[in-house]
Every structure is written in C-alpha cells, then in structure tokens.
Design a protein that fits this description.
With about 425 residues, the chain is α+β, with helices and mostly antiparallel strands. The chain contains 13 helices and 7 strands. Bound molecules: adenosine-5'-diphosphate and magnesium ion.
Length: about 425
C-alpha cells in the first residue's frame, strides 16, 4: 500500500512539473515566448514518458499510471500539435516496451487525442471553474474507457478504482493549480499595467504644463509677425523661433505617447543610454516643475529585457526621486560596470528614508504620500528588476538623499563589446 502511495505521489510530481514548476521557473526568467512554448511542450513530453516509466503497482499485465493526465492537459491547453506528439510518445513507448495491454494504450491515447483536439478551443473559452470541471469529467470518462477495454481484453479490473477515482481527482488538482498559477501571473501583469496608467496620468499634468510654454511662445511670435513694419530678416528669425518652439512641443508629446501606448511584449537587447535618455526626457517637465536639476553620465551598454518594462522601472525610481525633492535638488543618473555587471545608479538629494521605510519598500500599498501615492511603484520596480535577472540595493539617509543601485547582467552578445567600451571610457 505504501509502495503504491509512493508511486502515485511520484506520478503526481511528474505532472506538476509542466503545469506548475516549469511555468513558474520560466516566468522568473527572460525567456523568449517561442522558446517558452518549446520548453513547455518538451516538459509535457518528458512528463508523459516519466509517468509511464514509473507506473503505479508492479503487475506486468496491468500497468497503471497517470500518463492520461498530461495527454489531456497537453491537448486541451496547448492544442493539436502537442496532443499528437504526446499521443505518439505514449503509444511508441508502450509498444517499444512490448508489455501486455499496449492495445489499450493505443486506443485510449487516440481517443484522448481526438477529443482534446476537437474540444481544445471550446475548453479555452470556458471559465476557470468550468475548465476544472470539464477536465475532471473527461479524465473520468477516459478512465472508464480504459477500464472497459481492460475488462474486454483481460476480464479483470484490478485498478478500476484508480482509473475512476484517483485519476479524475488528480486531474482536477492539476487543473486547479494550473488555473491558480495563470490567475496569479495575470494579476501581476494587471498591477504593472495599472501602475503604469497611474504614472501616465500623474505625468499628464506636468507634460501639459510643459507643452503650454512653447505654444505660448510660438503664439507670441506669430502675433509679432502680424505687425507690418518688421524687416524681412526679423520675420525670418521669428518664424524660425516659432517653428523650434512647436517642434519642442511636438517632441514632448511624442515622448509621452510613446511611453503611454502599450507595446508588444518582446525581449530584446536594450541600449541603457538611449532608454535612460528617453525616460529623462519624459520626466523633464516634472523635474522642471519641482526645480530639480537632472545630471547624467551614461554609457551605451546593453541589457536584455522588455523595453516598456525597463523604461517603467527607471521611470518609477526617478519619479520617486523627483517627488522626494519638492523644493528642488539634483537627480543624478550614472551608468558604469561593476563586478562584470551593469550598474545604474540613481541618486537624489531629497528627503531620504528611515531604515524602517527602506525595509518596507516594495511592499504593496506602502506609501508616505497619502492619496497622491499608490504604493505600487517600487513593487513594480522589484518585480521588473527580478525578471531581468538584476539586483537592487537602496541606501538612504533622512534629509540627505537616497541612492538606488540596480545591477543587470550584460547582454551576452555584447559582453566583450561592453568591456571594450568601458576601457575606452576610462582612457578618455
Ligand atoms: P508611491 O510613490 O506611490 O508612494 P512607491 O512604491 O513608488 O509608491 O514608493 C513607496 C514609498 O517609498 C514612497 O511613498 C516614499 O515614501 C518612499 N520612497 C521611494 N523612493 C524614495 C526616494 N527616492 N526618496 C525618499 N523616499 C522614497
Ligand atoms: Mg512612486
């Protein structure tokens, strides 16, 4: 009995790998979407084989294992190709072993494949609860089919309770965990989006203020042009100034819209210098409003990540810095290489934080800004830095200022290039 329980738990562990362990591991890493899909398909395939290689019980005539669960899950969640692959693997493995009952595996696997391919689209359109229920029912039905085939072939039903009870229950548990994980990760994405919208709406006020200045200037010069006694040279000069002012307004609006509009999720090589410059441009109106001077010393190293998220991470940190200096100050952004990693150091001369406040940073809804703050900015920062394999260190002194250091791995392809660049910089 104990041995059977052990085998069963081992099978269950194999099943949890592609639906829980691997996706969780992948989420923490910056794996491209396509590669993610391949890894998941591969892990489903390995799980199917492992379930069959370590069956529950040792009766050679009646091999019982939970391999039908990855067949169902793979087919229903991941579509026709995965379903076909898993079915072929299950049949191939059983036939290769040459043990009795292979015809049962062939028939049941084929039925599961066809049903899951037909139902896959409908299955994915259901709510989480309905999906768990349907998966439970389908796995019970395929269990029942196996028992009937077994009865017809061998006229004995040693594992009927396993097929009819343990298999559907395990399926429901596996499906429940998958849905929970999905819900959690989509919730996290929603928080990041919501925080971005919050930042966007905060910036809107300072941006509109900043746009108004060049527009007013352009309007003034247009009015001057109306006067007829102006010389041709003066006219040209005024028109030039008006055009420059309008261009400035346009570039501010373009920066803002580029950040505000959603971009596709795609991991790419990002130039740290360019990205920081964009964020600084975006924040300049807010800095001007708070009389904050922005200083920067940037070097074009490369990191790997999603552009939109990387910008948002920098923006959240710098915005906090500017907000910590309501009466003006200096925001310093510095990039260099330390211990073979890219260091981005953002320091301000603001109000600083106590040790307790530093410890609470990243906690959701921790804010000292009352209704003006969301308390989500730093949480999002931690999440993004972690997803880019980076680390973050914060030091702060009350009334002196805060320094945030973020370390990122150098993007692989550009490692030597980046080190060369650093050498060049040192020589300069
Ligand atoms: P919010 O900015 O909405 O309050 P955050 O998560 O961005 O939320 O920041 C949480 C808190 O951390 C802030 O309310 C502030 O008290 C503190 N904080 C963050 N960055 C700084 C900084 N550079 N200087 C001083 N305090 C800071
Ligand atoms: Mg903030």
């Amino acid at each position: 009995m104990l041995a059977i329980l052990k085998d069963f738990l081992l099978n269950l562990f194999f099943i949890l790998a592609p639906i829980f362990v691997v996706p969780l591991w992948l989420e923490e890493r910056n794996v491209p979407k396509q590669l993610k899909k391949h890894i998941l398909t591969f892990s489903f395939a390995i799980t199917t084989l492992l379930c069959m290689a370590f069956p529950i019980g040792t009766d050679t005539e009646h091999i019982y294992d939970l391999h039908q669960i990855p067949l169902w899950l793979g087919g229903l969640y991941r579509g026709a190709f995965v379903s076909f692959l898993l079915c072929a693997l299950a049949i191939g493995y059983h036939m290769l072993l040459g043990e009795g009952g292979w015809i049962i595996t062939v028939l049941s696997s084929l039925v599961i494949m066809f049903v899951s391919i037909v139902l896959s689209k409908y299955f994915l359109s259901l709510s989480a609860k309905q999906r768990i229920l349907l998966a439970f029912v389908l796995s019970a039905l395929s269990g029942m089919l196996t028992v009937i085939l077994d009865e017809m072939a061998f006229a004995s039903l040693p594992f009927w309770s396993s097929y009819l009870v343990i298999q559907p229950l395990s399926m429901a548990v596996a499906c429940y965990l998958k849905e929970m994980l999905y819900k959690n990760s989509s919730l996290r994405k929603q928080i990041i989006r919501a925080e971005k919208m919050e930042v966007v709406s905060h910036l809107a006020a300072s941006i509109s203020h900043e746009v108004r200045n060049p527009l007013t200037a352009a309007r003034g010069f247009m009015q001057l042009l109306e006067q007829s006694h102006l010389s041709l040279e003066k006219r040209k000069q005024y028109i030039q100034i008006a055009i420059e002012e309008l261009d400035r307004a346009e570039s501010i609006i373009t920066d803002y819209l580029t950040f505000a509009k959603p971009a596709p999720e795609c991991v790419e090589k990002l130039n740290v210098k360019t990205e920081i410059e964009r964020v600084i441009d975006l924040l300049r109106p807010l800095a001007n409003m708070n009389s904050v001077e922005i200083q920067s010393s940037l070097i074009p190293f490369h990191v790997k990540g999603e552009r939109e998220k990387f910008q948002q991470c920098l923006l959240n940190i710098m915005k906090n810095s500017i907000e910590a200096m309501p009466n003006g100050g200096t925001l310093d952004v510095y990039v260099s290489i330390e211990h073979d990693q890219i260091l981005i150091r953002i320091s301000d001369t603001g109000i600083g934080m106590t040790k307790e406040q530093i410890d609470r940073l990243g906690e959701p809804y921790f804010t000292t800004k009352g209704t003006k703050g969301t308390g989500l900015g730093m949480m999002v920062v931690y999440r993004i830095v972690e997803s880019m394999d980076g680390t973050i260190h914060i030091t702060s002194e009350v009334n002196k200022g805060t320094t945030v250091c973020i370390y990122f791995p150098i993007a692989q392809l550009n490692r030597s290039e980046a080190i060369n660049k650093k050498k060049n910089v040192l020589f300069i």
